Structures are given as C-alpha cells and as structure tokens.
Amino acid sequence: MAIDEQSTAAETAAAVPSPTDRFAWRSMLRIEAALVIAIAVTWAAFGIVGQGFFSQYSIFQVTQVIASSLLIGFAQMVVLVTGRLNLAVGGIGVVCIMLAGSLMTAMGLPWAVALLVSILAGALIGAIIGLLEANTRIGSFVITLASLSILTGGVYIVTRAQPISLPADVRALGAAGFVSPSVSVLLVPALLIAVVLWYLYSMTPFGRQSKAIGFNERASSTSGVRVKGVLVATFMLSGALCAIAAFIQSVRVGVVLPSLGEDWVIASFIVPVLGGTALSGGRISVGGAVLGAIFLTSANTGLISVGLPSTWLIFAQGAVLLAVILIQAFLRKRATR
Amino acid sequence: MTASTSPLLAARSVSKSFGANKVLSSVDFAIAPGRVHALVGENGAGKSTLIKILTGSYASDAGTIELEGVARRFEHPRDALALGIGVVPQERQIVPELSAAENVLLGHLPRRGLFVDHRRSAEQAAAWLGRVGLDIDPGVKASTLSVAEQQLLEIARGLSLDGRVLFLDEPTASLTERETGVLLDVLRGLRDQGVALVYVSHKLSEVYALADSVTVLRDGAVTLASDDLSAIPRSQLVTAMVGRDVSGRDEREFGPIDPDAAVRLSLQDVSTSYGHSGISFELRAGEILGLYGIVGAGRSELAQALIGRARITAGRVEVDGRPLRARNPAEALRRHRLGYVSEDRKGEGLVLDYTVRDNVSLSILDRISVAGTQIRRSAERDAVRGAVGRVGLDPARIPSRAGDLSGGNQQKVSVAKWIAAGAGVLVVDEPTVGVDVSAKEEIYQVLRDLAGGGAAILLISSELEEVVRLSDRVGVMVDGELRAIMPNSRSYQVMSGAIMEEITRIPTP
Amino acid sequence: MKDHGLRRILSSRQALYILAANVLLAFVLVLVTPTFGTPYNAYVLLKATSISVVVGLAQLVVLSVGQFNLSVGGLAGLATAGVAVAAKAGAPLAVIVLVALAVGVLGGVLNGLLVAKTGLSGFILTLATGGVFTGLNYGITQGAPTSPVSTALEQFGVGQVLFVPNLFWLALLVAAVLAAFYRWAPAGRAWLATGGNAEAAELSGVSRGASVVGAYVVSGALSAVAALMVVSNIKSAQPETGNTWLILSFTVPIIAGALLSGGNAPVFTSVLAALLVTMIDNGLTLVNVDAYWVTLLQGVLIFIAVVVTRSRARRRARWGVSALAAPSRQGATTGSSA
C-alpha cells in the first residue's frame, strides 16, 4: 500500500469543486443520529430488562450524573477544538471545589459566592496553563500532565485529605428537582452552559478562530488570528468549567472529597469524542456531547440496573471509548475516499 | 532510443489522479544505464509524483512500470530498493538523533552476526561522505549538521545504495556553487560506471551541464523528450516547460509607475534574525516589485520577518510612513494592513477544512461581528462576496470546502482573504505554483488590479517569466542579500539575461 | 567511534546533571536525617528504585518510537490480576511469571496493532486500552488483594547479593539488555529511526509498523515485570498496582532527557532519573513530610526537566495535533525555503 498516498490524496485539490453539501455537516448529523438511536435502544432495552430503570429515583440520579459528566466533557471539549488537550481537568476541579468548600464551611459564605470564587480560581489556573501552552513549546500534554501532578499533590497536602461536608442548603440543591422530582435542578445549569457553548462556537469570532486554530494553526496565525490569546482564553474557559463540574458533582454527593477528579480523565474524553468532537481539533459538536453524555449515563445506569457489578463498569467505559474511537476513525477514512 | 542503450527502468503510459485531479496523463519515461536523464518541469507538473511511482511510494492508476522490459508492481519503497532503485527525495529525510553514519547507511547498516557493526558503519559511511566532499566525523549527530551538510548526507545515502538507478530530486537546493560542482563530478562518475541517473532540477544551467537526455513535463503530460539534450536550445526547453513561446516576447500591458505615488513599504539596510543583511528597497502604491531568486535565497524568510515571525535585527522598516511594529501576523495586519499570501497554500495559506467563506472571513472576524460577540452573517456575506468577486472566483464555490478546490481556485481564495482584509501592502509568495495556465492568467490580472487600486505588491517568484510579466521593477536576491533592483524592460530576453547575470555573479568582498 | 558504554553515558550532559543532583540530594538527606544513611534505608531505597526504573523504561521504549503508552499502569494491574488468579490456583513460580508476562505481551500486542493499523495516535488508543485493562483487572479481582502468592517470589524480593537487593540487580539487568538492544541490535536502531523520522525510515526500508508493535510489546512485558517486582516486594497481589504509574512512567524518561517526539532512548540516564525520583520520595517520607509532596514535586520536576531538555534539543513537537490523531509526525528538519 502506497504510504504517502492517502495523505496526499487528502491534500491535493480536486479539479472539480465539491457540491454545496459540506463534508463536516454530513458526518456530524450522522453521528448525532446514531447517538439518538443508541439512546432510544438503550432506554428501551434497560427499561424492559432492568430493575427500576425508569423509576423516579433512577431518572433523578441519571439527570444528576448527566449534568456533571456533561460539564467534565465540556471542559475537555473546548480544549480539544484548538487541537490541544487538558489532562489536568481533575486536578483543577478538585482544587476549585476544595476552595469553595472551605469558603462555605470555614467562612460561612453563601454557596453562590463560593461557587463564583471557585470559578474564578479555575479560570486563573487555566490562564496559567494557557500562558504556558501559548508561550512555550513544551506542549499541552506535558504541561497538563505536570499540572495535574502539582494540583493533586497540592490539594492533598493542604487539605490533609480531609473531606469537607457541605452545608445543608447546598445539599438541598442536590435533592431538589422538578417534574416531581424526576429531573434534578443540577441539569439546568449544565444545559444552559451547553447552549452558551453552542452559541460561542457557532456564532462568535472566538468560536471560528478556535476551530481554525484546531484545523491549521499556522494558517490561522498568518491570517491574523491572535492564536495566543485564543489559547489562553480556551484554557481559562476549561478551568472555569472544571470548577462548575466539581461543584455539581460534590452537590450530588453532599460532601467534597479530596479524591474528586481522579476518574475524570477518561470521562472527559469519552463525552466529546463520542459526540463528534474531533481529537485532532477543528470540529466540535456541543449537541453531540449532550447526546453522548445522555447515552453514556443511560448505559452506565442501565448496566447497574441489570445487576452488573460496579467493578465491571470501568471495563465497560474503556471498551466503549475504544470502540467509539475505532468506529469514528473507520468512518472518517471511508468518508475521505 | 538507440539500440545500445535500451531502457533499464521505464514508465509506460502511466497515469495518476488524486481524487478528480489528474496529476499524470499517459506519461512515457525511460531511463537507460550509463546516462543522466533530466526530468524538468515547473512546480506542480507531476515530476515528484512520477518519481514516487517509479520508486515504489505510489501506485499508478494506469500504465505499467518496466524493469529491464519486465512489468513490475511495487507495493512499497522496499520493493524498489531491493531491485536497486533508489531516490534522494526533495524533502529532508534526516533522522536527527542518529549519527551521520547511520543516516547514510539507514536501512542497511553493516552487521557482525546479529549485531550492528558500528566500526564498519563509520568506515563505510566515511567513504561515502568523502565522495560527496563532506568532511565530517561520521559519529556526529545528524541534527548538529548544517542544512547543506544534511543535503549532502542524503546524497551520500543515495549513493550508498549502490543501486542501478538513482533519482535525485532538487539535490542542490541548499548547496553552494562549489559543493554543486563536486556533486556533479560525482554524478558523472556514477554515470560512467553504468548507473542510470535521473536528475530533477529547476536550475537549467546544471541540467545542461550534466544531463544527456531530457524529458519535460507540463501539467502531467510529456511535452518534450529527447536523447540529446545538447541539441535542444534553452528557449525550446523553457517553452516546453511553460507552454508559450517565450522567445523574444515583449509585453507592454502596464503604464509607467507614478513617481509621486506614496511609498508604502520601505526597508533601509535591514538585517533579520534569519540572516538577511543590508536589504534596502522602496515600494510605492500601485507598484509590483518582483523578487527573484533561487531556492534558498531567503525571500520567503524576509516576508516572514516583515509579518512578525522573525526579528528585524538591524535597519529600519516603514509601512505607510510608520515604523513597522509587529510581533506576529495579527499585529502586522491590524497595525499596518500588511498581508502575506503564503507559498505554502495548503499548509499556511488556507485552512483546507474550512469553507471558502470561512477562509475569506477569517481575517476580518472582528470587523464583522457585533462587539466581538456575534458574527453578522449579512456583513460576512457581503464582504466575502465582494472579495470573491474581485478574484474572479465563481460565487457558487463559496460554501465549498477549500480543500476540494483546484489549485488555482485555492490560490484565489488565499488572495481574496487579504482583499477582504483590506491589505494595503501585500507580499505574494509564489502565487501560481501548481496552478493551471488559465487560472494563472486570472491571478495575474487580480494582482494587476490590486496594484491598480493603490496597493503595493511584493511579488516573490521563482518563475522568471512570471516575474518579467508582472513586475514594474525586479529585485534579485541571493543568499539573504538583495543584489540588485532593476527596472523591468518587459523583454524576457533582456531581463532573463540580466537577472541570471546577477544571480551568477560572485560579489567582490 | 567514541561513544561506547560508560564513556557515552558520562559524556551525556543530562546524565551528569542528574548524577550531580543525586549526589547532592543524598548528601543533603544524610545531613538532615540520620536514618537516610542506614543500610536498611539504602536497601528499601534501592528496592523502590528498581520498580521505578522498570516503569520508566516501559514508557521509554514506546517514546523511542515516537508514541505514548498510557496503559502502563493498567496493564501492570491486569498482570497482577493474572498473578492473583495463578496464585489462587496454586501454580508454581514459573507459571506465575509466565502468566504475568503473557498478559503483558498480549496487552502490548493489542496496543501495538491498534496503533500500527489504525494510524491513530498511541495517546488516545492507550488511554482507552488502559481503561479496558483496568476494568478487566477490577472485574476479575473484584478489587480484592490476593496473598500469599509465592514464597519463592517473596524470597527473591527480600534477598540481596553483595549488599544490593535482587530486585535492583534485576532492574539493572533489564536496563543493560535494553541499552545493548538500542546500541547493537538492528531493530533497536530501526526503532530510533522510526521515532526520529518515520518517513525517512520507511523510505529506507525500515518498517514503522514493526517498530511500533515491537515497542508496545516490550513495554507490556516491562509492565508485567514491574508488576511482578511489586508483588515480590509487598508479598501480595494488589489490584491497585499501577494506579499511580501514569505520571511516574513519564517523569522518569522526561527527566532523563527522552524526546517526547521520539528518536532517542537514554536508558542508563533513566536509571539515574528513577533513583532521583525515588530518593525524593524516600527522603520526604523519612522527614515525615506528606507523601503527597512527592506527587507535587514530580510535576515540578517534569517542568524543569522539559525546559532543560528543550533548551538543548531544537525539536519541534506540537502535542496538540500529533498526540491525538495523526501518526507521530516526526520533525524532519527541513531546510530553509525560498
């Protein structure tokens, strides 16, 4: 098989221009359609087979988990668009929530204020990482890997690995819901943020520039895009999203655990990747991420409802991610034929 | 083909397409042992593709490859290597962390039993390195060598294959005159030993000095093939490459430059961190200054320095009367309306995965959005349509993905972007590489119109004819210095002579 | 040629820096805490170092071909699960070792084939396979440790020769074999070529696929070896084995000067780097500092090491793109354009 052939084929222009259809649109819709079908199948299957899959309690749980996994996925998604990655999502999350938790308990601040402060902290940490990424050639892999280490270690040192119990009014948020109560209130901010992100990446210059950088950074730079600025802003956004994700996850549990974030890495990739956000950058699908989060959470919950021990859930997650990556790569290869 | 030199390796009616782009059309190409065969053509003519097919990197869509008359299929470069067919490609193929010796002998390091014999590697490599005139310690890490040394290293690697056929693609791109001379001697020696050599180069003087036979490719087809290069005058060769009768052409399509027009770009004694020194020139509104030079002269690097990717280490640069302050292309555009149409259209000029619309509007997003938040679609549409119209691109192409367009259309998009951005000073780097003839003419017209509208254009080109056709004045760059600027008499004969003289003149120190 | 064995290591600046750091640190620790200099502590230190060495080398071999392996820890955990299963079945030491190695090799084959055949980057593929391995591990063991495993293994873990623990000799042996491989085996030079410039290597007949698969297989085997070392050290097969190895597996080679874009394999320097990292851990524990300081310091060390290595090697590596999707785009140093 000719080695360079495929790459040159993709690069070399066709003498005949393509029809009005945009390649990206078609494959996006295909992925989202596939996800909708997958969700329907999952709900149907587990609804029939599982114990109490559709019970009020179960749905309530599901909406809560969707909320947090969606935000964790968003934190990675915004970075992926620019062709970078953020391995430190868990570390940023735990630092921010520990900060918020301490503010609430030790200083008695209302949760809204503590949340705001923690979001700012997340943005600040993101800014530092972003500056490093924009101004050095170290690479986001090493930068965020090292940052993860520093943040996680730092948090444990400072907090002495003590969990922080959240005040009652915050815990109440975790129990509150509507549609009597089947849908957790926590889903609301998650979906709102989804809408904001969708708007940001499809309607604003920032979104266009981020995607351009992900597709071709050099061309973007030559075209006058302020690459460094966009990168810093992206990591700040990611950091802020980590803070919110950590808050939601902790509210669910009612306590701030220093181990928060340890399992975020894989989760942060699965949601956007499943939804069609490209790992190489440029392509983003907020809707796909939402659908992906719904599917994954439904599948997870469903598997538990049929009695799968939690120890096998990790395997399931890894296997799903692997399968998704392979299928997407295969589909992409066929599409560029 | 004379009977005594029957072909060793031949391509028969070879065609190759990438998608809908036909890169080679029914090409016949035959190489005989003991001869140097030149393969010439402009950029995008299909030379590299033909070589890749003959050396096993690509498979042809139609036609056959014959080795000693027997049809062959190469699945992988390894197959070709095993049959004694080697290539020194145009792209750098150095493994930086390995030693020079290992780079030379890559893939066939001498062994002692199961193990690599480093001592013999060093000895063998030293022999090959010596033959190309490279006097270095074979154990030294390849990344520490200069670009010229690395090129010689790769040539040594090609020689070490000791094959029957050797392709060399622009082997002297980074070499000095002296090094080139040594190389040509080595190649002559190889030829005399019976090796079949294929020599690809833009430098026609080298081609005439070395080659016995020639094949000219233009737009994927053979336009001239001869066993006796010495019988072919240069103008005939160039005509075959370019497709027009270029002998004694005289164009007067422009008016004279208004001497009172504002100076839009001025460089005084400029040096850059790339290594330029003493560059001085002025560019007025409405003027096209053509910068000619051979590969390695530093013209693109100068452009990169102007848009802020490298430091101006000495001298003054002024744009529209104000000193140039640009730490990156974004600042160059915003502060000075200085733009750069890259020679690397696919890698730097365009975002291939973006539509035409998104590419054109990329530079003006701030301007067409409401306080940086929402992009005003109507404003975008108008700006894009306007720019696309001015480059003569069919508006129906606007929603198309840039990567799917032809080379000519891609180039138009690349230029349209800067028109939309309102660039007043535009550096255009190799605008018609890989662009077919009719699109070339359209792009020339676009550039002329731009200049006519008051822009100042710095045209970087390696095509002599293009420089002569477009420029009001011509500058000649060699090795990071601007050797001369001359007014354009529009006569190809005269100008090419004068330019070549500047290029080959050795400056008195 | 002037680069042979010992002289080559010592002529490497990075190795000298690390050696100096080691000496300095040891000096400081001896002063600060009397326990550090005791023979028992040296014994503990060397045993811990030996594991860090093998973990670091497991990553190093994959880095050398220009890829990443995020499943080092996961595969080690799975190998430990294999050990647990074999131990529960009453298997002798030889079988236990074979089971572990088989798991490691098979996992490596999976990783290697995926990377080689799909053309996707090892980063995301091994992120996923790592999850699969971890999942299998926990599924099989249900999160419960198994002990005892094998008295012979335990005795090996405890024993020493010439005042140096067996485990450390083993680590040194592994390092020596790898170093020899990279120096004298044609495959070793081929791997470095693939990592340094995959296209050049391919054009010259080196098979990128073979190099990649080979590297992942060796990496998997090394993960298994590290797992066995842990088992022999703590005398039980714990499912958490490898949990914290992701960062460690990168810290060691990065400090040792391995290029993230591939193409080099500083094996003995990695040994020195592993010693440094472990000594920090050991020292901090002795001074009663929170163990989490180690995690934090590893992050800092990575930063310092990368900056130092980068300022010496002029390599381009944009980890956004090449880490995630494209096959490792090795920086072919291009000449200046027109």
How would you sum up this structure, described in words?
The complex is a heterotrimer of chains A (337), B (509) and C (338). Chain A has 337 residues and is mainly alpha-helical. Helix content of chain A is 73%, strand content 2%. The longest helix of chain A is centred in the first third of the chain and has 27 residues, at 23-49. Chain B is of the alpha/beta class and 509 residues long. Helix content of chain B is 33%, strand content 25%. Chain B contains 17 helices and 24 strands. Chain B has a six-stranded mixed sheet with strand order 6-9-10-3-11-12, sandwiched between helices. In chain B, a hairpin with a 6-residue loop joins β13 and β14. Chain B is globular, with a radius of gyration of 24 Å. Chain B starts with 8 loop residues before the first strand and ends in a 5-residue tail after the last helix. The longest helix of chain C is centred in the middle third of the chain and has 27 residues, at 208-234. In chain C, α4 packs parallel to α6 and α5 (93-118) packs antiparallel against α6. In chain C, a hairpin with a 2-residue loop joins β1 (160-161) and β2. Chain C has 15 helices and two strands. The radius of gyration of chain C is 20 Å and the shape is globular. Chain C has helices at residues 5-11, 13-32, 39-64, 72-88, 93-118, 122-141, 151-158, 166-184, 186-196, 198-203, 208-234, 245-255, 267-286, 292-312, 319-324; strands at residues 160-161, 164-165. In chain C, strands 1-2 form a two-stranded antiparallel sheet. The chains are: A mainly alpha (337), B alpha/beta (509), C mainly alpha (338). Chains in contact: A-B, A-C, B-C. At the A-C interface, α6, α12 and α14 of A face α6, α12, α14 and α15 of C.
Task: Put the structure in a nutshell.
The complex is a heterotrimer of chains A (337), B (509) and C (338). Helix content of chain B is 33%, strand content 25%.
